[in-house]
Amino acid sequence: MTYGHLDIFGRAAQLYDEVWVAVFHNASKKALFSVEERVELLGETTVDMPNVRIASFQGLTVDFCQKHGAGVIVRGVRAASDFDYELQMAQMNYGMGGIETVFIPTNPLYSFLSSSMVKDVAKWGGDISPHVPEIVQSRLIERLRQD
């Protein structure tokens, strides 16, 4: 999780009374942190956002939304290439469950950030402190040392 993610969460929290950050459990993908660890980190980094809730899920995003009474999915987009993919997902989610999608353009300060890039920089000993909260930086460095 980067400051880009937190920026989108915070901006969404200004628009909606309640914001759910949904952590998807993808068994086919080898994540650096478990779902439980990601939920914990998100909880720690969003503590100053009282209307933000964190939960994990498996399955379809529309099912998560319906379970939690969310009628809108908020997605951050960095570039046109992000939008192309996100638009297809938005149309599918609307078709399956009537769930709207709102796109929030990424703050230009974070437009180049990606979690993969941050992990690569950390792996090679680079300074990631401008890009992630301190708790995320320390946990990431600790995890990379274990591998």
Automatic annotation (TrEMBL):
CDD domains, alphabetized: PPAT
UniProt enzyme class: transferase
InterPro entries: Cyt_trans-like, PPAT, Rossmann-like_a/b/a_fold
Binding site for ATP: H5, G76, V77, R78, E86, Y110, S111, F112, L113, S114, S115, S116
Pfam entry (one): CTP_transf_like
One Gene Ontology CC term in the entry: cytoplasm
Subcellular location: Cytoplasm
Cofactor section: Mg(2+)
Function (record text): Reversibly transfers an adenylyl group from ATP to 4'-phosphopantetheine, yielding dephospho-CoA (dPCoA) and pyrophosphate.
Family stated for the protein in its record: Belongs to the bacterial CoaD family.
Descriptive protein name: Phosphopantetheine adenylyltransferase
Gene this chain is encoded by: coaD
